[in-house]
Each structure stands twice: as C-alpha cells, then as structure tokens.
Amino acid sequence: MAERTERDVLHHLIDRCRDGERGFRAAADHVGDPALKSLFTELAAQRKRFAEELLPHLQRLGGMPDAEGTGAGALHRTWMVLKGLVPGDHDHHILAEAQRGEHAAWRAYEDALDGMLPPTVSEIVEAQRDAIRKATDRIHAIDVASTIAD
Fold first, then answer.
1. Which of 6, 102, 104, 127 is deepest in the core (most CB within 10 A)?
2. Verdict on whether the full-model pTM lies above 0.90
C-alpha cells in the first residue's frame, strides 16, 4: 500500500465526515421515531462541525475537500433510503445502516491515528474518534432497546 501523507489522511477524514453528515440527514428524513430523527439531526450537525474543525489543517497543506463526498458514501445513503422503503420496521433498518456507517467512520479514524499526523491534529482526530465511538454506542443502545421492545 502506498504511503499516505498528512494531506491524504485529512482529506479522507473530511470526506468521511461529509458522508456522515449527509447520511445522518438522510436517515433523519426517513425515520418515523421523533427521538431517532433528533439523534440523527444532532449527529449530522456534529459531523459538519468535525469537517469544519479539520478543514483549516487540510487547507494549510494546500488541500481542498471534495464538494460531494465519496462515491461509497453516496451508495451507503442510497442503500439506507432503499432499506427504509422496504415493508416492515423502517427505523430498525435505518438504525442498522447507521451503525454500519459509524463503524466504518471509526475505523477510518483509527487508521488516521496510526499515521503521521502532528500532535495538534492528532488531538482533534482523537477527540472526534471518541465522539464517534459514543455515537456508535448510542445508536447501538437504541437498536438493542427497540429489538427488546419488539
């Protein structure tokens, strides 16, 4: 595998954040439960903030993020919407997809921390990774609670 630069790592994380923001907004638009709608809206805003926190560090290196995010993110959002259209428990399907997306985001952050980020950026990335872990736990807890209630 080719050596990744700090710029590559930051670009990837910002893309992940933007994918997460769009994904959570799509999830909020397609769930029926008001608490889930609120959670997904909150997490979308969080991911937007994460991208904004990382952007100056990417710009310092001469990089600019993609305006549209990644193809994989677009595919994930489409899949989430399609699952939400399947008859049955729409919210559960969307929750499961949100969990899957969060695991992928967390892995991207873990990979980034194995790289060569400077300490100031590493601190931001670590804090964001920890927030993603907490979000994953929140989503999982809701999924477990809804499974038990069924």
1. 102
2. no
